[in-house]
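Run Kelch-like protein 20 through structure prediction, thanks.
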Amino acid sequence: MAQCGEGGGAGMLRRDAGCQRGTLGCEGHESQPTTPNEDCKFVNSAHPEAVLKGLNDLRKSGHFCDVTLCVDGRTFPVHRSVLDSFSPTSGLSTCSMCPGFILVDAMFLSNLAESQQEHITLSGVEAGMVALLLDYAYTSTITITEANVQALLSASNLLEVVAVREACCRFLERHIDATNCVGIHCFAEAHACDDLTRKAKAYTLR
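Sure, done. The structure for Kelch-like protein 20 is below.
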């Protein structure tokens, strides 16, 4: 009878074992090999969400936060690395769906005095909207409503949170009607939302 451990770890793998699917539920998957000796690539699709949740829990508890954003008397302890990773200038991607916070990122990566400060003051943006955008940075989720869409678009436009800005534009586009088309046109034009500007103008002129 073979003893436990006999033959080493490699000897324990049968040539016909392969990688099986369907055993990992919705949390991950393994690539199906084309040959018995091919390596398997395991992907845990729940991992990114779990990491974000962990970072958000750290933020809420104040652990490892190394910079504080100050907006209209409110303070937001955050992690520089998260805001930097959240910036469209990090990495090489220029995709229009990339998120933002480029204003803060520019402070971190430049020679500005703010790059070394533990407290950074943001002006020209509502504290409530910064709170929503920070939640988005740490969770990838944000709720757009009729009550907040204009202020949220303004804030995401200023901070260049492109994905949220475009989501706000789509929200406004879906709500264009005869009572607000002129106002939406003017608002969109003021914020350089070209596609929304054209659609609001077209609705006004029809």
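Residues 150 and 168 are 8 Å apart (CA to CA).
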